[in-house]
Design brief:
- This protein is an all-alpha fold and 183 residues long.
- The protein has 2 domains: 1-52, no CATH class; 57-168, Orthogonal Bundle (MetI-like fold).
- Helix content is 73%, strand content 0%.
- The chain has 8 helices and no strands.
- Helix 3 packs across helix 7 (138-167).
- The N and C termini lie far apart (53 Å).
- The relative contact order is 0.09.
Amino acid sequence: MHGRSGLLLGLPGILLLLALVAFPLGYALALSFTRYTFIRPSLAWAGLDRYREVLQDPYFLNALGVTGVYVLLTVGLGLLLAVLLHQAYPLRGFHYFAVSLPMLIAPVGVGLIWKMILHPELGILAYLFGGRDLLGNVQTALLTLALVDVWQQVSFAALVLLAALRSLPQEPLEAARVDGATP
């Protein structure tokens, strides 16, 4: 009886999850194999043609590369911060707070703060870089946006990776130290 009552209690949540996530995802996947567009809604079979087109599109490949840079920066810096915070040192509590702070600010607030910092006439970074408009320059705009986004997102990655480091069993590490392993 307990198994059935648990299933009945969980059923509304499962149905809601299926309705809001699984169905739209499956429907979008099914449409990706057709020639359906909003202008010409046709369910004519296209097979893998659309996927071939996307993989040959230079804009898609550029977006994929930019996304890869964002992910590598975020995860790489997050892992570095997590490893540093995993060590025992006197100011670790303060550094937990400092790393968590960007994550606590709403993305809209982060955008407004960085908009003022990067403002071409009033911003501190424009002043430090000799009046350069970092967001208005083709060479610096992507890197500037990437650093702003990574600044906020790296704290989440660091805390998740730190939790993973903390959950590792200590016995293999202690055994390695006994065997003479160094950090």
